[in-house]
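Predict the structure of Damage-inducible protein DinB.
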Amino acid sequence: MSNGMEGAVNGWLQHRMVLDDLLALVDDTNVDYRPWDGAMSLGELAIHIVTSTHMFVKGIKKGEFDMPPTENYKTINDIRTIVQRYTEETKEEMSTIFTYQMKGYILFNKVRAPGTYWFSNAIDHEIHHKGQLFTYVRMIGAKEVPNFIRQPDEI
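Done. Here is the predicted structure for Damage-inducible protein DinB.
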């Protein structure tokens, strides 16, 4: 990465890799767990996290946002595979964002803002939902959960 995004990618990965750690605590019996009626299931939440960040990053590069793709899964291993795929794809997309794309303005949800805003929003959105996933995992019985962020030498 030579475009100045290396620090941003590594910072994001410190958060994203914890998603793997959380999903390692889940088995197939809890993939459809919902803490309340109308909540996203545990599996839906994990998929939402990765597809949304991917949507934001691709949208910054494209100059407009498309809806996140839908992903089908049945097992926790399906979810883990989808998370890994999106992590790799998003990492690659992030590493090839140019300065002009980060400075370009994009309209989304009636807000017109530069790519830098949407990039920050994507990271914040992911962290917010990862926090929810911590709660889900605790509610299904996990006694020990990982730290909210991996240290740089653990990436």
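The chain has one domain: 10-154.
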